[in-house]
Amino acid sequence: MNRKSGRFLFAALLCFVVLGLTTVAYGQGRGGGHGSGGSGGHAGGPPAGVGVDRGLGNASDRSNGRSDDGLATASDRSQGRSDARLERARLAADNRREADKEIRDHPGVANTLHVNANDLRSGYQAALVANPGLKFGQYVAATRLQQNLGRRFPGITRSAILAGLANGDSLGRTLRNLGLSSDEASAAKKQAEREIKEARH
Questions:
Q1: Please, where are the H alpha helices in the chain?
Q2: I need a surface site. Which of 34, 36, 91, 143 has the fewest CB within 10 A?
Q3: Of 189, 183, 117, which Cα lies nearest the Cα of 148?
Q4: pTM confidence score
Q5: How far is CA 52 from CA 42, 57, 60, in A?
Q6: Which one-letter DSSP state was computed for residue 180?
Q7: What is the mean pLDDT of the segment spanning 125-142?
C-alpha cells in the first residue's frame, strides 16, 4: 500500500468513529429527555391532572372530608343568620301594621298619653328596631307607667321598662327590678291598664 492510499484509509476510519460517537450521544440525549419528564413524557410541566382543580379535590381527600364539612357548615351558619334577620323583619312589620290599626281605630290612646298619633307611631317604630317582638300595647303601657311613676321613682322610665321587656322579663318583673315592691308593681300595672282601656272607648 502506498502512502497516499494509507492517508485516505485513515481519514475514512476517523470519520466513521466520529459518526458513531455522535449517534450514541444523540440517543442518550433523547433518552434523558424522556426520563426527566416522567413516565407520561410531559417534560417541563406538571403531570396530567395536576392544577388548581385537582388541588381542591385532593384537599377533601387529605382531610377525610373535613374541608367539605367546613364549607357546608359555613353555608348553614350564614343561612341561619339570614333566616333570623328575615324573621325579625317579618315580626317587626306585623307589629307595625297592628300599631297602625290601633292608632287609627283608637285615637283616644294618643290623647291619653299626651302625644299626637304621628309621634306615638314613630316612637313605637324606633322601639321595634331594638325589640322587633315588642307589642304596641306594651309600648303604650311603658309610656303610661313612666308618666304615672316617673316623679316618685326617677329610675322608672319608658326606656328602662322597654329594656326589661327586651330581656324577656314580664312587665311586673321589670317594675320590681326597677325598685317597686310586688304590691306597688301590681297596683301600678292595673292603673295603667285601666287608663289605657278607658282611652280605647
A1: 3-36, 52-62, 66-105, 108-112, 117-130, 136-149, 158-166, 171-177, 182-200
A2: 36
A3: 189
A4: 0.61
A5: 18, 9, 13
A6: -
A7: 96
